[in-house]
Amino acid sequence: MSPLLMVTTGMSALYNLWLAVMMIGLWVAQRLTKREVGIAVGDLGSYAIAVGYVAGIIGCVALGAWARVSVASARKPVASVGMRSP
Question: Domain-by-domain residue ranges, the chain?
Answer without folding.
Answer: 1-40, 41-86
